[in-house]
Protein: Small ribosomal subunit protein mS40
Organism: Ceratina calcarata
Amino acid sequence: MALILNKLQFAASIIRPSLTSRVIPVKCMHPTITKLNEVEQSDQLALQRAPISKDRTTIIPVEVSIRYLKSRAYRETYGDDPVWKIYRRNFKGQFPPKKTRKLCIRGGVIDTGSPCPICRDEYLILDYRNIDLLKQFISEHDGSLLSYNYTNLCQKAYKDLRVAVMKAKEYGLLTFDVPYIYYDYTIWNH
């Protein structure tokens, strides 16, 4: 309705120059933009209603995470085991689903009842400099990355883990063995 009025006023101002044109603000009616605004408002409401223990909006530096892994609080919480060892994943039914959940944190708040081992502890930061944490997710037998079905990480945390491990290997912070293939060159000598 407002668009029609604006067009009529514009047409009238062309015909009669004595009329002053007036612009009426129009609200956006596009469904995706209004949906984004609703999501932002619901995220802000969730942050207001969320308890402090579930708030994940504060950014913790990697240096704090590295010091946390060497602290007494970490040893009391996890002991000598990896962070994923004592975690039990909730799922419906007898058999676990093939994939873990997509993400545990939505809008800066923990969204699930049992978040993955990385998302539940705000001081565990997946970064290429945090070598002690990355080594917990690497197999000691063959040096490959442990599966998310075994470690129960959410898909977002597992993707961040893969990126951090690749980056640490590129920078030389994580050592790995390149497989050596033995060839029989006698077949080439004639």
